[in-house]
Amino acid sequence: MEQTSEEFFHDFRQELLAGAEANGSFQLSEFMEAIANDLVETGFTEGFELCHFRAQRGMRVDGYWFNDEGVLDLFIADFDSRNELASLTRTEVAAAFKRVANFFEASANKGLAGELEVTSPEYGLARQIADRKDAIRQVNLVLFSERTLSEKIQALPDTEVAGVPVAHHIWDISRLHRQRSSRSHKEPLDLDFEQMFGKGIACLPAHLGTDAYQSYLMVMPAEVLATLYERFGARLLEQNVRTFLQARGNVNQGIRATILNEPGMFFAYNNGITATAQSVETGMTDSGLAITRVVDLQIVNGGQTTASLFHTRKRDKADLSQIFVQLKLSVIDSLQSETVVPRISEYANTQNRVNAADFFSNHPFHVRMEGFSRRIWAPAQKGAQRETRWFYERARGQYADAQSKLTPAEQRRFKAEHPKPQMFTKTDLAKFENVWDDHPRWVNLGSQKNFARYAARIGSEWEKSSDAFNEFYFKRAVARGLIFRATERIVSAQPWYNGGYRANIVAYTLAVLGDITKRRKESIDFLGIWNAQKVDPVLESAIAVVSGVVDEDVIRPPQGISNISEWCKKEACWTRIQARSEEIANLLPPEFYDRLVPQDDQAAIVKTAKQTQRIDNGIEAQRKVLAVTAAEWARIHQSLLEKDLLTPKEDGVLRVAMQIPSKLPTEKQSVVLLDILDKGRLEGVVVSEP
Fold first, then answer.
1. Where are the domains of the chain?
2. Is the model's pTM score more than 0.85?
């Protein structure tokens, strides 16, 4: 049975209370972070920086994010830790937006930064607004409310503040509930081309002869694509493509050169765009069929083309009126989107080839981590009788989906076995890992960009040896997560903490601890933390010491850099803090060093874990191979032979598989056979799923 808004409100409130207690944070901060994380995951915003500021002059702000494309998101909260669900009125909405707009105007035009404490988050934001004013092309004012928006309030018109276009967005509890409840776990874009551009986009049906799905070929005006990207940004891009762009930057110089120098040849030179949608509406025009409306447009290949069109129009003032892009649009309903869309993305990408790691939800790494999380029991904490699991969300919304069809009694059991604080996502994992691997700067770039870099790194390492990602890796990752979350709580409790830059301080604190231990050829006892399922007091004390020094360092950026958050994103920040590692090491007590383990001992554990994983991989590969019939292997063999795609080794291994069950492929041969299946799929050979 579907959850009501009231039930969702009460569950969400309990989630906030538990989170605030666990993280040692204020409920308001937890409220802002919880909603912001949802919106970052679904692409509504690229990131979120906490910044609480109130002034008697009718100004308020609770968070912000600058993206690389001249867009500033300013967040404001409507939160009073209410016990019951209430209604949010138009007057209250207008008042909230007025306060945050006043903050922007005062920062941009009235020198607000000069009145603020230079080490405070609000100073950094106000100063950044003033410094970047000419580069800010749009401001999004975003209201987070724990109430439900009155039905009387329709769409809010765009305005201008300090000469900058301003859009208004409201995320009330009902909208958050709809997003979390939706099958795709994101709010679909509803694009009415007639309303936005005055006419539909010419198309040609390409699904003749099949009832499986609808598809259309379109000639998309470049102006339309650039405008859509300007308005909706990364929300247009399927998650894997968004990750790809985050990792590689937005402008392709070859595309830019064609736009500027040979616009008439763009259609011929460019590979075009592949996109999906949940549904479309069409209409007849004098020139033929046209698509007039698209629900949940997602670009799955061609994200770089789209971004480059926008950037070239903006930066170079390029005329796009004579440029058109071929677009293939497949209509995929929400039931199939989770599995079908990533495959379309993977198979469609040829230009600027996207690495396998960029198709991350379905990447074998994540599938393996998910498998560990569903199988491995975490040791019961001292005094507790029940063992629990750490639930890894490979795809967004899995934690909620796992409970959706359970009875109330089964839900209680599920939550007891998988406590909400022990749920972690792909972006969480990327943070836990990157801070220990000398990449604290990446973590400070925001969760999506950090994840993009983690994806690229893991993809490369997976290609070299997938055996490195084993049970020990999973347990170590959880231990690192325990340390990360403990550090958030410890920093929040320090007397010097002023409510800002926690994420920056946490990242560099853990990176420094990692650097100190590596210099000694030692390591934190991650397995010990996994077994205890908590951080011991000695490590907590060390974290408190290091975080104090880190805070003192990061709040003093070099001359010419006014914003501390921006300073923390620079490699020079890590270099400067890293240079103090020996100095900081001398501040730590002997007990801290007594609890470290030699790197050689850790290496021995890793070696054993790799060997075990190698055996497990072989057994799993053999299981998958034996699930395919000999006749199917024979068909695959013939298809690839006709296409001249088989090496002598592959030919020989396939001939063994064609004799199942009288002959059984070895584990090594089974790994080769699975690679052959992947090759077949990429070459258009349809194979049954093992």
1. 5-181, 190-354, 364-595, 604-682
2. no
